[in-house]
UniProtKB/TrEMBL annotation:
Pfam families for this protein: UvrD_C
BP-aspect Gene Ontology terms: recombinational repair
Residues annotated as domain UvrD-like helicase C-terminal: 17-120
Keywords attached to this entry: ATP-binding, Helicase, Hydrolase, Nucleotide-binding
Keyword Endoplasmic reticulum: no
GO molecular function: 3'-5' DNA helicase activity; ATP binding; DNA binding; hydrolase activity
Protein name: UvrD-like helicase C-terminal domain-containing protein
Nucleotide-binding is among the record's keywords: yes
Taxonomic source organism: marine sediment metagenome
Length: 135
């Protein structure tokens, strides 16, 4: 069992997840990865597999099949990992929604965009120094 791989002093009390629907596939898979990139690729591949399963499922309505990603959730242990997952989802064209609590201001592309927006509003050319990171 997966729980046996966790030291007993790091375990929390048991919690039960109760599904709304009785799905045929109820397994929990435990995977170990050698790199973070390998794990992200696995997550995206698994999401695409689930999307395909949803498309042919006889248990779901036509509306649920038309929006397969709403039936998929990725849970993270550490919030700091969310930006890596979002970036990977964007590269793979996987739509996502979050609770909106992630801070993306430290991301390179976001900083560059903020520099461009600030640069557009600078009236004195002496204020241009330090803004070349956007270019």
């Amino acid at each position: 069992k997966i729980i046996s791989q966790l030291p007993s002093d790091e375990r929390t009390e048991a919690k039960e997840l109760i599904p709304r629907r009785d799905f045929k596939r109820k397994e929990i898979n435990f995977k170990q990865f050698t790199t973070e990139e390998e794990e992200l690729i696995f997550i995206c591949d698994r999401i695409e597999d689930i999307k395909k399963d949803i498309a042919v499922s006889g248990e779901l309505s036509a509306e649920e099949k038309s929006r397969p990603y709403t039936n998929i959730a990725v849970l993270l242990r550490k919030r700091e990992d969310i930006l890596k997952i979002i970036d990977t989802f964007q590269k793979r064209g996987i739509p996502y929604a979050t609770d909106g609590k992630e801070d993306i201001s430290s991301e390179k592309r976001v900083r560059q965009m903020l520099d461009v927006l600030q640069l557009a509003h600078i009236k004195d050319t002496a204020d241009y120094s330090g803004k070349d990171a956007a270019f």
